[in-house]
Amino acid sequence: MSTVPHPELEAFRREFPILQTRTYLNSCSLGALGTRSMGYLGEYQALWNTLGASAWYELWMGRIGHLLDRVAWLWNARRSEVALSPSVSGAVAAIASAVDYSKRNKVVVADLDFPTLVYQWLARHDVEVVRVPSDDGIGVDPARWAEYVDERTAIVATSHVFYGTGYVQELGPVAKAARAAGALFLVDGYQAAGQIAVDPRALDADVYVGGPLKWLLGGPGLAFLWVREELIDSLRPTVTSWFGAANQFAFRVDELEYREDAGRFSLGTPAVPTVYTALGGLEVFAAAGLEKCLERTKALTEHLVARLDDEGWELKMARDPARRSAIILVRHPDAPGAVRRLAERGIIVDYRAGYVRVSPHFYNTPDENDLFVDALGSMR
Ligand SMILES: Cc1ncc(COP(=O)(O)O)c(C=O)c1O
């Protein structure tokens, strides 16, 4: 008997066409497209077709505001603290451009962070990038951050959930090390938001970035950015845009006056189709109950891990359930071949060097986990 809670959430499966025809277990790459998002996309196209440019001023801008309201809800944040950016790379680049590296020229990251985060500073000749090592290739000992962060550190930047192992970092000690040194603390939460609870202020972060593509079911084209309200005024991005300017439609070219809120980190015209699909994605969580979705994703993870353990598969993930999440890597001698053969059976997962990667989300079921484990076993 499975103990996966909230079976009533299975009603939401009807909203996701891909779940009707496939066993879809790859939400850490791309969340499923739902009927709410498709409905919104229809609205977007209809407005474009009927109103032309006035859709932009009158209605699309309003939808951008609705999306920001939802992001603030998702992250328990103030509306003034959230903004959109074209990608996580863009959001981090804007923040990184607001920091003075002349007195503090060190940025501390983790060996296991996603490359695009680290590249923001590897690309600079005036910054030394220091990587906190992983002892086991799965996570980073939280106590190690304090060894690497010092008074030369401008920024501590790391993931909430490591993309390669699903490891959930204990961020308290990282925040503490950054605070003690007077460094900015930036968290890349792309693999966290939507599958684990996120409250950037409670995490003591200064900046938190994420996006709709994966767990938040909103597709590619945007990222979400949160900046601690007390810091916004002191951060003046040099990677910037007219969307970051106060009174942008005054079209002033004699001076740049930043917006007072986190919108000052915006980078140009946002991808409006994604504004619409992201709204649809976040509405699913609001309708289903965010907490319930997170509990169910966690339980499906534990169910899948138990099944894979029972079958003797070697997993690359934290053995402590508190530190692992719904990104599960199963060691496999021919991961690309296994993923291809599973796809032939309608089971969609992914691979990373030497591993089949499987990521259940709240809309999956214990039966789907079983299907995957049984199919993987039968191909052994
Ligand atoms: C943790 C993490 N950060 C950043 C990215 C990429 O960000 P973007 O393509 O929006 O710049 C990914 C993409 O997979 C990721 O997993």
Q: Which shape, going by the Cα principal axes?
A: globular
Class of the largest domain in CATH? Answer: Alpha Beta
Strand and helix order: HEHHEHEHEHEHEEEHHHEEHEEEH
Q: Superfamily at the CATH H level of the largest domain?
A: Type I PLP-dependent aspartate aminotransferase-like (Major domain)
Main sheet record: 7 strands, mixed
What is the CA-based Rg, rounded?
21 Å
Distance between the termini: 25 Å
Mind telling me which CATH architecture of the largest domain this is? Answer: 3-Layer(aba) Sandwich
SS content category: alpha/beta
- Tell me, rounded to a whole number, the average pLDDT: 97
Per DSSP, the total helix count is: 12
CATH topology of the largest domain: Aspartate Aminotransferase, domain 2
The distinct bound ligands, ions and cofactors come out as: pyridoxal-5'-phosphate
Proportion in β-strands: 5-15%
How many E strands?
13
